Amino acid sequence: MQDTVNLRRRRLIGTAAAGLGLLELGLNNLAFAQTPKGTHAAKKAAHHTSFDAIEQIDAGLLNIGYVDTGPKDGQPVILLHGWPYDIYAFVDVAPILAAQGYRVIVPYLRGYGSTRFLSNETMRNGQQAAVAVDIIALMDALKIDQAIFGAFDWGARTACIIAALWPQRCKALVSVSGYLIGTPEANRKPLPPKAEFEWWYQFYFATERGEAGYTANRNDFNRLIWQLASPKWHFDDSTYQRTAASFANPDHVSIVIHNYRWRLGLAQGEAQYDDIEKRLAALPAISVPTITMEGDANGAPHPPAAAYAKMFTGKYQHRDVSGGIGHNLPQEAPRAFADAVMQVVRL
Questions:
Q1: Does residue 183 lie within any of the structural domains?
Q2: pLDDT tens readout for residues 88-111
Q3: DSSP sequence for 150-217
Q4: Kind and range of the H or E run holding 339
Q5: Structural domain contains residue 184
Q6: What is the C-alpha to C-alpha distance for residues 27 and 248, in angstroms, rounded to an integer?
Q7: In a domain, 269, yes or no
């Protein structure tokens, strides 16, 4: 297969390509990696392939599938995945935290895995406020008043929203790629050509062809995203297929397409979230203790840490993780991610 050829080619040119890619992305000497303390080498954890059980609970508009591991009286930690990933991004992180006495909750976001809408009439809405409200509803259903959040991609955006608007529910935050709250209005401003190129799939999804293509080819499409976003992560087929099963969710395509169209102002959200979106449009600061993280080989579009540091007004630290770590940092560097979750409240 061409995918296999591409992966072999990446192995041959990995070192040179990674160095060039970092230079082009402008990540060198940015952020808070100016001292050795800002850089953390990835440490491998024991490789797990499954969770003990997936539980289900009605929460807000959804029946949410989730993992609940560790002692029930432990400090709650909520781990949130993004697109195109799922709960298995944390399959090695969760056992580390549970072994240290944390209660670890890992939910499937709307449109993934066993999470389902309670009503066929509910809009399949992927806007940022809707996803954040889902997680608040999950916390209420589980009677969790406050949790530490660890997240990346869509999950990091969701966790940032909760930390900014409901800080009483967020004890501390670990966010890969930092402050990810955005607005359709801000997204109307064009980016430099290279940055626009990196968002190619967003423009593809804006078309009818893109929606049809994603519907027909979501498995191969998302595998390609994994390869582009983590060019030095040589995952095997079984690792990918465990997650790919969650894309069979009947609402997956609708949620993904709506999310990216909403970001560009090409699709409407729901009026019930207008007040939340208005508050998010002001780009509220995050005051809870926070560690932001970035892999040294993240091939997905992401801002440099220096661009968002001022958005974190409480105790704050940025960590760069070395070792060829891409966009799916929790799964590629589980020990570094788990350490950040355990250390963030002690900044």
A1: no
A2: 999 999 999 999 999 999 999 999
A3: EE-THHHHHHHHHHHH-GGGEEEEEEETS-----HHHHTSPPPHHHHHHTHHHHHHTSHHHHHHHHHH
A4: helix 334-343
A5: no
A6: 36
A7: yes
